[in-house]
Structure formats: structure tokens, C-alpha cells
Amino acid sequence: MNPVPELVPFLKQLRLSGILDSLDARNRSAIDSKMAYTEFLALLIQDEVARREQKKFALRLRRAAFRASKTLEQFDFERLPQLNRTLVHELATGRYLAERVPVLIVGPCGTGKSHLAQALGHCAIRQGIDVLFTTCAQLVAAMNAARATGGYERKLASLARVPLLIIDDFGLKPLRPPQDEDFHDLIAERYEQAATIVTSNLDFAEWGDAFPNRLLGAATLDRLRDGAYRVVLDGASYRSPRPLPQTPKTPLAKGPKTAKP
User: I need a surface site. Which of 43, 117, 184, 217 has the fewest CB within 10 A?
Assistant: First the structure.
């Protein structure tokens, strides 16, 4: 007698229907190897735990809104010989997340700032941390839109609660009022409460130039720099244009022959 049909409603009631995915295979393996009941049960539970962890990982990855799948394993360290690899691998352990401090990544265009930021975010997700990736322009636009609909405080609170917020391309476009105020409010709310990764093409000394209100900028950057890890990427751009296709040379058109007089 096959007990599986009778098990289905009970497993669904207990929210364990995922066990059905591996039940047949585990059952055959248990019979072939004369496995003890407790061993068989342990394997089924391990399968269910692994399945749930994978679902959580996939959900966090989707919510993170990364531009693409960028991992630390894919990062080309050889192109950046001056990069502090020890620091990068230390950040990958997630200690800064427990310290609730910022990570500031700077470098010229195309050196891999966004890749590295997303890779660190990917590492955090593997560790069970919720992550949100956004550009600075998208961030301030979303906060401004929330203000227009009366949901600014709710939006601010939501962003402040994210355990790891990654803000890409800070300073690419100068902040304008009230964008600078919104950015300040968010950094102030997250200060010493949650980790934030910020990437920028600007040198650290130039970050203040992104704020129209220098006093507000100084207050914001003071919180961002406090205890922050700084990563400098200096090297050739990863991005290169495709070579132009070779076009065959066409012979010059010859005019019609004219009869000699």
C-alpha cells in the first residue's frame, strides 16, 4: 500500500509539502540501504531545511534588485593590482554588517565599483541578510515621489530598516533641494543602525561638491565617514568598445568609355 496519498493533506497542513519532492527517492534509497527510520526521517528534514533556505535566498536575491548577477568569484582582481584584497575579503565576511558601519567605494568609471558593491551584497544575502540595491538617482526620486503622495515618512522608515542598503553612483548627478535633505535624512536615520555601501566616481575629497548646501553636506558626510571602510579602485576600465567590422574596399566607379575622334 502506498501511503503517500494519505500523507499529502497532512504535509500540506503542516506546511511540509516540499518533502514530497524528495520522498520517493529517499524512500527507495532507505529501502536499498536498509536505513533506520530515524536516519530516513533526518534526511527528509535536512532536505526540507535546505529547500526552505534556497527559497529564502532566491527571495532575498529578487528583493535586492541587483542590476545583474555579480559575485566576488567573478571579480577580476588582476586588473586592479593596487586594490587591497585583504580588505575586500574581510568585507565579504560581513563583519561590517554587525558593526553597522558604511563601506565607501570610489574609483574611475568602469573599474568595477558597482560589481564589487553588488558582490558584497550577494555575500550578505548568502549570510541571510536582506539587501536593497539602488542608484542614488533612483533613491532620491523614490523619496521625492513618496513625499508627493504623502508617504514620505513611511518610505524613509522602510529604507532606514533595510539591513544593507547599497547606493550606487553617488555624486554622478548633483543633488538638488529637496534631494539633499532627503539623502541627509536617510543617512542620519541609518547612522549606527544599519550598514550602507556607497559607490562614487568622485574622490572622497570631492563628495561635498554633490551638495548645494555645504553645511547639510558636511553633516551628511560626517555620518557616512564615521568608522567607514574605504575601498579605492584604481585601474583600467573594464568597458571597451567593440572593434569596428572590417568593410571591404569597393573599387572606384569608372566612367563610360568615349570614342576617340
Answer: 43
Peptide bond into 178 cis (omega under 30): yes
Our measurement of the distance from residue 68's CA atom to the centroid of its chain's CA atoms, rounded to an integer in Å, reads 8
C-alpha neighbours within 13 Å on the C-beta side of residue 134: 17
Q: What's the number of CA atoms in the CB half-sphere (13 Å) around residue 260?
A: 0
SS3 assignment, position 60: helix
Residue length, the chain? 261
d(CA 245, CA 261): 47
Whether 163 and 131 have beta carbons less than 8 Å apart is answered as yes
Query: Alpha-carbon distance 259 to 261, whole Å?
Result: 6
**What is the number of other CB atoms lying within 10 angstroms of the CB of residue 160?**
17
* pLDDT tens digits for range 72-87: 999 999 999 999 999 9
In the block, cell 562614487 appears at: 200
80: how many CB neighbours lie within 10 A of its CB?
21
- The model's pTM: 0.80
Contact 160, 187 (CB under 8 A): no
Question: Residue 260, Cβ neighbours under 10 Å: how many?
Answer: 4
Asked if 170 contacts 197 with a C-beta cutoff of 8 angstroms, the reply is no
Closest CA to 20 of 58, 51, 59: 51
Q: Which residue has the cell 545583474?
A: 68
Q: Which amino acid is at 123?
A: C
Q: CA 223 to CA 139: how far, in whole Å? A: 18
- All three cell numbers of 67, joined, read 542590476
